[in-house]
Amino acid sequence: MKELQHLNKFFLKYKGKLLLGILITIIAQIFALVTPKLIGNSLTAVDKYNRGIITDLELVKSELWQNIAIIIGAAALASFFTFLMRRTIIYISRYVEYDLKNEVYQQYQNLSVNFYKKNRTGDLMNRISEDVGKVRMYAGPAIMYSIRTITLFACLVPLMFISAPRVAIYTLIPLPILSFLIYKLSRAIQKRSAIVQKFLSKLSTFTQESFSGVSVIKAYGIEPQVKETFNEMVVEGKTKNMDLVKVNAWFFPMMILLIGASNILVIYIGGQQYINGEIELGVLAEFIMYVNMLTWPVATIGWVTSIIQQAEVSQERINEFLKVVPEIKNNTIEVTPIQGNIEFKDVSFTYDDTNITALKNISFTLNSGETLAIVGKTGSGKSTILDLISRMYDTDNGIIEIDNIPIKKLNLNSLRNAISIVPQDAFLFSETIRENIKFGKEDATDEEVIAAAKFASVHKNIVGFKKGYDTILGERGITLSGGQKQRVSIARAIIKNPNILLLDDCLSAVDTETEEEILNNIERITKNKTTIIVSHRISSAKNADKIIVLEDGKIIQNGTYDLLIEQDGYFKELYLKQLSEKDL
Ligand SMILES: Nc1ncnc2c1ncn2[C@@H]1O[C@H](COP(=O)(O)OP(=O)(O)OP(=O)(O)O)[C@@H](O)[C@H]1O
């Protein structure tokens, strides 16, 4: 229960509702207890009349009518309070679920990119949905059934012992056995359900991938193999489900058997006592009803135990993520306006998961309003420089300063607000094109959206679509071509009007003509913005004030465009190569 203590703060938050729920549960149980007692009394009255102990029929009739009226009233009140009980306690569990989900989601938002690299998306999703769901079962049904069982026992057992102690002992004997067996059975059911659940996610991943990759499957003509694999999986699924069904099938027969055993004991022992004149006939009926009332709550002891165990495991998984301290911390709450002067002082950076040293002793200065082009072979560390500027990662080797302040001392939100980044792999949300562009500025007007799209040379394409800016992009923007995606992503960055613009090889999928058009636009609007353009193409570096060439994490050349095309080295080689390709 150590991990579940995390929920205490929520219980404290809803303590008023919880106490009310407990009170309602107790009231509901007390009303439910009225019925057996009165049915017993009614039977005793009829029995006494039959045996001639009571001779006044009218008296018996009036007692019966009175009992019927009370039973109906008590049953109605018991149902009403049971309804209130569920409403109050299950509602609390939904509130706790809501709060916990928000807490986990907030934590996910705070965690750095590195965390997401180390943990699989499926696992993150599972902890916020499946695990929180299991914890909810503890915060709701487990608590509700526990209170119900405790109240029922507290009221019923003394009542039974007062009415007929010997029958009471025999009635209660099979119940712990029932509870223990249900516990064992619930564990077995949960184990098998977990296997079925795991299998189902495997099956849905497979089907989802085969739908997404349908063109590859068709192009390679491997439909029969895919179908074969699917069939095998279905058979596997059937076997796993049958295992579950077999165990599940034991549940009700076992309950019926043990209820039956209790009933037989009541009738046998109670019957003997009745024959001997030790108890009334009504007590027998009363006890049979008690047995049936007790069976489900007793069965829930086993069920609730396994719910709590599962919730503990799930909460442990949730706590594991909640305890992670975000690697990238905001070190000041003070807003720090950013102008855009960037300086790298002897910066080195190693990715801790791969141990790859992506940057080695990098130093450069970029004044606000200047444009820097970074050129270099793939894997030379270009994107890493951009990631360090936007503080996706922190480095302890060397210093990065923005406006002469170490980057870690800046307000993280101010920094990120001042930066627009167009990543290499443009990710678009499954929303309309308008929404995707407005992502950079939520309150942007339609005119601003259109201006940004024009800037990124994608406006003409968008208006060519039937629904224009309202075109919904499929999963990961699949309805757009690679170049169109890149340009929508540029429009999204531009609309934010940032002081620092970081373009990570984001024109690779557009033709050279459009590239030039966009670069000219960029040059026009970035006069007062610090811009870094990462590219494999020499043409992208043409308008830059400064250029650095990276190789294996080190700066091997730097200077202006005119200087570098004269200087022997990688840049000149690339220039000549791309020049000859253009001539072809
Ligand atoms: N998130 C990461 N975790 C671990 N290693 C990484 C990560 N990102 C990049 N690397 C490694 O760091 C090195 C530099 O990568 P980086 O992405 O900065 O290169 P790049 O010059 O931008 O390459 P490209 O032109 O192909 O985009 C590479 O060896 C790469 O494998």
From TrEMBL:
The keyword Transmembrane applies. Pfam families: ABC_membrane, ABC_tran. Residues 342-577 form the ABC transporter domain. Keywords: ATP-binding, Cell membrane, Membrane, Nucleotide-binding, Transmembrane, Transmembrane helix, Transport. It is a multi-pass membrane protein. Residues 19-310 form the ABC transmembrane type-1 domain. PROSITE patterns: ABC_TM1F, ABC_TRANSPORTER_1, ABC_TRANSPORTER_2. It comes from the Bacteria. The keyword Nucleus does not apply. This is ATP-binding cassette subfamily B protein. It comes from Kordia periserrulae.
